[in-house]
Amino acid sequence: MNTRQKDILNLLLSEPDDYLVVQDFADRVKCSEKTIRNDLKTIEDYLNQHSHAQLIRKPGLGVYLNIEDHERARLSRQLYTEHHAAKQQSDEERMLQIAYQLLMNPKPVSAKEMAAEHFLNKSSIKRDLNQIEVWLQRFGLTLVSKQRLGLKIEGSEKNKRKALARISELIDNPEFTSRFIKSQFLSHEVEFVKSEIRSLQKRHSLYFTDETFENLLLHTLLMIRRIKMKQPITISPGEIDAVKKKKEFQWTYACLKRLEAVFAIRFPEEEAVYLTLHILGGKVRYPFGKEGESGLENPLLPKVVEYLIRRVSELKMMDFREDRILINGLKVHLNTVLNRLSYDLSVSNPMLNDIKKMYPYLFHIVIDVLEDINQTFSLSIPEEEAAYLTLHFQAAIERFSYGKDKHKKAIIVCHMGIGMSQLLRTKIERKFHQIAVM
């Protein structure tokens, strides 16, 4: 909603149990009755997404907001917070909100409305839009300006979902992005989806990393919103048939069925397939000794792991072929990578720039080897994955340098995945020789 629409909603909230005629709104916010009627449609869409309130219009009486007292208080606080936050928000946060609005909105949005909503002039909004336009090109999306209508993002629904999943890259702040997307839903809705994902893990002994859990939560929430907006995903028949044969599809389908009643929607088969692909392509921790029992090993995995270890050993002039910790870690990680590539899923790495700076020589070795692997096996492993693989090899290098005499035992708990966990493990064991990390 723009500033005028928020003012109209505030008027409705401040006049309990009373009808207001359209002319009253027009006089108070100084615009035409036609504009007010269009604004009321936008307000109604906002209420459908963010509240259980109903906007009731009766000829001869006017407009009335049917809302419970606790909802009235919550919405009033939310509008107040949004108003003051918009004045104080940073340039990066504003850019994130504009990109999200454009990606989620199936209809054109005018730059003038965006400028009014964020209390800025059109030239400032144009600078944001230029950056967003360049970023969208990475996902095969185009920002199109439609005369007298506004701006709209054109491209496939699949590519729009990819961009939404990696929207944090615009501002390099995953935590803010996560909070922002969750704020578009009622708190009990977010908690219910969380609970269902936890139940899915427990029921089928899945061990998602924190990063994968958070990504699945956001993917599911965005999926729900897109279905409500009648913007479904399209999956090829061959891919649907292949995924439906996997047991993970049945698990995911049952999970989504439990969500249908809460959100009053029906999940198409394609959406269940899409979420299953994200589960198959997510980072999963396995119980000790269970790495090879998942039944999900990619057929290319042994060849890629062997090639990677052999070539890095040659270039680094260190023999990594006997390091079972490294081999097992690479198998788990690269299996996820190959699944992501097979299912055309995107990946982000918030540590990419830090890893490049900390281990530049090793990172470039891994990049060179991956270029050969990509060419040899017709793959396209990106540099985000090269950075994660660099951590695995750095941990192996540091294992060479500490002794075997250990007395105390410790456990590493890390939400960043296996690579970072192994690096932390070897750094601790190197500095404190009396500690053995299990």
Describe the SSE topology.
Elements: H1 3-14, H2 22-29, H3 33-50, E1 54-58, E2 62-66, H4 69-88, H5 91-104, H6 111-117, H7 122-136, E3 142-146, E4 150-154, H8 157-165, H9 174-183, H10 187-204, H11 210-228, H12 237-244, H13 247-263, H14 269-280, H15 301-316, H16 324-342, H17 352-358, H18 360-377, H19 383-399, E5 408-410, H20 418-431, E6 435-437
Parallel strand pairs: 5-6
Antiparallel strand pairs: 1-2, 3-4
Helix pairs in contact: 1-3, 1-4, 2-3, 6-7, 10-11, 10-13, 11-14, 12-14, 13-14, 15-16, 15-18, 16-19, 18-19, 19-20
Q: What report would you give on this structure?
A:
This protein is mainly alpha-helical and 438 residues long. The protein has 4 domains: 3-75, Winged helix-like DNA-binding domain superfamily/Winged helix DNA-binding domain (Arc Repressor Mutant, subunit A, Orthogonal Bundle); 89-173, Orthogonal Bundle (Arc Repressor Mutant, subunit A), CATH 1.10.10; 185-280, PTS-regulatory domain, PRD (Orthogonal Bundle); 291-437, PTS-regulatory domain, PRD, CATH 1.10.1790.10. It has helices spanning 3-14, 22-29, 33-50, 69-88, 91-104, 111-117, 122-136, 157-165, 174-183, 187-204, 210-228, 237-244, 247-263, 269-280, 301-316, 324-342, 352-358, 360-377, 383-399, 418-431; strands at residues 54-58, 62-66, 142-146, 150-154, 408-410, 435-437. Helix 1 packs across helix 3 and helix 16 (324-342) packs antiparallel against helix 19. The longest helix has 20 residues, at 69-88. Residues 286-295 have low confidence and may be disordered.
